[in-house]
Amino acid sequence: MVKDDLKKIVDDAKAAFASVKDKLALNAHKANFLGKKGPLAAIMAQMKSLSVEEKKELGMLSNVAKKEMEDAYLAKLDELNEEEINKKLMEETIDVTLPGYSFNQGSIHPLNEIVMELEDLFIGMGYEVAEGPEIETDEYCFEKLNLPKGHPARDMQDTFYINPEVLLRSQTSPVQARTMELKKGEPIKIICPGKVYRRDADDATHSHQFMQCEGLVLGEDITFANLKGALLEVAHKMFGEKNEIRLRPSFFPFTEPSVEVDVSCSKCGGKGCSMCKGTGWIEVLGAGMVNNQVLEMSGYDPKKIQGFAFGIGVERVAILKNGIDDIRNFYINDVRFLREFKEVK
Ligand code: PHE
After folding, report:
1. How far apart are the CA of 252 and the centre of ligand 1, in A?
2. How far apart are CA 120 and CA 111, in angstroms?
3. Residue 94 above 90 pLDDT?
4. Is residue 100 part of a domain?
5. Hey, whose CA ends up nearest to atom 4 of ligand 1?
6. Ligand 1, atom 9, residue with closest C-alpha
7. Assign residue 89 a region: left if phi > 0, alpha if psi is -120 to 50, beta otherwise?
């Protein structure tokens, strides 16, 4: 009797599960047939009044029935899941004939290109690349470089002040002082490329923001000859093996003696043309032997350690190498200009 009841329940459940079209309906049937208020639970509730033997048998039979219903439920669930996936796959077909997306590849900025070339050259000669803050203090930007407040040479480097003691650095030279303090009297061989700022009105040859690449070498036997050698390497690497350099006496408060360095004009080979204004030479950097005062201020003993420093104008090199006629081109982000520097591979 009970056996028949159970069979009917299982058949009804199977039929109900088979008839549904979605998971919501399937779960509703599951709750009806297998839940606490379902027909199976009702049969089990009768167990109390049965003998031990009968209980055993009913328990076994109802377990089989339960398992059968659960299997039917799971089979239907699988079926519905698969249907769902197939439907999604049908709906989300990819049209392989559609045109693809095109990605515009950028190019390395012409100034970064020069910095990378310089880094490559100097790292090859055993230099390290150092960095310093662009928002600098008056102390590091000027005072520690032998430019006390009121020094007339400050006029050439008027910059943007955040307050009387904090400014946008007008040169990369403060990195010299910072590195010397860090190295505490030890030898140094660094370059420091970076942005600098000055209060200049922008025109074809001036920009309120530009880049320099500082160099500093300190050691026991560093002489002016080493400086000249390093500068010649720069000229050869950046402009060509045939290029020569010319040193003219100059003045920087942090170097003594100081020089202005010209490279022979690569356009006319030194004969004189419009690029070199007829002189055959083009000025690219300032340099000199580090002033004893500067060494002492940063904890170096000039009797033991001396050396040289130089500051390369990155725009100047980029302009000369690429025949650019307006410095502002570097900063206005005109892609037509930047595209010119795209390497064709
Ligand atoms: N900092 C100097 C300038 O901006 C250049 C320089 C650097 C000169 C290092 C000598 C040594 O004019």
Report:
1. 7
2. 14
3. no
4. no
5. 171
6. 310
7. alpha
Percent of the chain with pLDDT over 70: 99
- Amino acid letter, residue 105: Q
User: For residue 307, what is the domain's CATH number?
Assistant: 3.30.930.10
Q: Is there a single domain that holds both residue 80 and residue 214?
A: no
Parent domain of 225: 110-339
Q: How far does the centroid of ligand 1 lie from the alpha carbon of residue 206, in Å?
A: 17
pLDDT digits (tens, 9 = 90+) for 234-252: 999 999 898 999 999 999 9
How far away, in angstroms, is 193 Cα from ligand 1 center? 12
> Residue 325: which pLDDT band, with cuts at 50, 70 and 90?
confident
- Ligand 1: nearest atom to the Cα of 176: 9
Domain identity same for 233 and 114:
yes
Q: Please give the structure tokens belonging to residue 307.
A: 């050396």
As a whole number of angstroms, the distance between CA 164 and CA 183 comes to 28
- Tell me what the mean pLDDT of segment 220-246 comes to: 94
- Given the CA of residue 145, which atom of ligand 1 is nearest to it? 1
In DSSP notation, 209-234 reads EEEEEEEEEEETT--HHHHHHHHHHH
Which residue is closest in CA terms to ligand 1's atom 5? 311
Q: Residue with the nearest Cα to atom 10 of ligand 1?
A: 287
The answer to whether 133 and 168 have CB atoms below 8 angstroms apart is no
* pLDDT tens digits along 10-34: 999 999 999 999 999 999 999 999 9
Which among 91, 122, 154 is the end of a domain? 91
Could you tell me if 319 and 218 lie in one domain?
yes
Ligand 1, residues at Cβ distance < 6 Å: 171, 173, 214, 252, 255, 286-288, 309-311
Report the domain count for the chain.
Answer: 2
